[in-house]
Design a protein that fits this description.
- The protein is built from 12 helices and no strands.
- The protein has 272 residues and is an all-alpha fold.
- The protein has one domain (67-269).
């Protein structure tokens, strides 16, 4: 006896089967479950800390100058640097071409260098017009930073590459089911990197974690430059030292995940 069908030909059992399929897909993938909790928690934490900073400081907007606009631009450099890296990698995954590349004479380091260069190209396309709009509409000239801008940029791009390499390794090993990590992981750093507010706004125990992240030093350095008119080379040196450690660790992680993907056949599957 066939399953009941409504007068319009809609079969509830088929709908239930599809819901069950998507439910199994959801609960079998921890990146998907994490994403459901991720954005609401991130929004309340980030803007909650910013609200605390504003409420604790009279005349905030008068003193802030261009710090918010500058923070937005520097954050975009960090985010788009990582995203440009990850998208180029994901394009190989989407095309099911990664297995072919890994079986070719192409070395992993050569592959990663090509992704780094593409991230710079994508970054330039997106950020340069953004800086010009900041000059036109907000009278904020990022290029007036001078030499400190080079230190800011280099530290941010090194961090973005480290995150991009690590995320690419995770997707390589776990398949496209972990693709959402490429879009969301960088945002997890935003509250702790203190993009829009100083480190002192954070609870004392969180400040230790914040100072372990290279972008924190960059954004603190930007505020010191704009508010106090002082360049802090000590902050940039600390950021660079942490970046070196992160870059080496991310590259080692990528190689380890690549070996694991080869053992488990993930390079050929490349699916969910």
């Amino acid at each position: 006896m066939s399953a009941p069908v409504t007068p319009r030909g809609i079969a509830p059992h088929r709908i239930a089967a599809m819901i069950l399929r998507y439910w199994y897909l959801l609960v079998s993938s921890w990146p998907r479950l994490l994403e459901l909790l991720y954005w609401p928690a991130l929004q309340i934490i980030t803007w909650g800390f910013l609200q605390s900073y504003i409420s604790q400081n009279d005349g905030f907007f008068a003193r802030a100058g261009g710090t918010l606009v500058g923070a937005v631009i520097l954050w975009d450099i960090l985010f788009r640097g990582q995203l440009g890296f990850s998208i180029s990698f994901l394009e190989e995954m989407w095309a099911r071409n990664l297995g072919n590349l890994m079986m070719s004479p192409l070395k992993p380091i050569e592959f990663l260098i090509s992704l780094m260069i593409m991230s710079l190209i994508r970054l330039a396309i997106g950020v340069i017009p953004m800086t010009l709009l900041a000059i036109i509409f907000f009278n904020f000239n990022l290029y007036s930073f001078g030499l400190p801008l080079i230190a800011f940029f280099c530290n941010l791009i090194f961090t973005s590459w480290s995150v991009g390499i690590f995320v690419s390794g995770l997707v390589l090993r776990n398949g496209l089911g972990a693709e959402s990590i490429a879009w969301t992981l960088m945002f997890a750093l935003m509250p702790l990197a203190c993009v829009y507010y100083p480190v002192t706004v954070l609870p004392h125990w969180l400040q230790y974690i914040a100072w372990a992240l290279p972008p924190t030093y960059v954004f603190e350095g930007m505020r010191a430059l704009l508010i106090d008119h002082v360049f802090r080379p000590d902050l940039m040196a600390s950021a660079l030292a942490i970046n070196v450690v992160l870059f080496i660790a991310s590259f080692a992680s990528f190689l380890a995940l690549l070996r694991s993907a080869r053992r488990h056949g993930s390079l050929i599957q490349g699916g969910e």
